[in-house]
Write a structure and sequence with these properties.
By secondary structure, the chain is mainly β. It has strands at residues 5-7, 12-17, 24-25, 30-36, 39-44, 49-54, 61-62, 67-71. The strands form 2 sheets. The protein has a 4-stranded antiparallel β-sheet with strand order 1-8-6-3, with no helix packed on it. Strands 5-4-2-7 form a 4-stranded antiparallel β-sheet, with no helix packed on it.
Length: 72
């Protein structure tokens, strides 16, 4: 329920993380990609924010709503 916590929208693999801790991202800039059944879903920033923490590493399996990125 926290808008600063960005979770996985679906179950799959965290195939790519585009951001780093401390990075400033602009609205609609990609944060990470979830791959499921040969389809990719890109999660983007909803506003200009700073990345506070990245909770998971590329290549891990995620479930829906698993916390991936925390924004500041």
């Amino acid at each position: 329920g926290n808008p600063k916590h960005i979770g996985s929208p679906l179950q799959g693999m965290l195939s790519k993380v585009f951001v780093k801790k401390g990075q400033i991202v602009k609205k609609n800039e990609p944060l990470f990609v979830i791959e499921a059944m040969k389809m990719e879903t890109t999660v983007t920033a909803s506003a200009e924010v700073e990345v506070k923490n990245i909770s998971l590493k590329e290549g891990v399996r995620v479930n829906a709503d698993d916390l991936v990125v925390i924004l500041n």
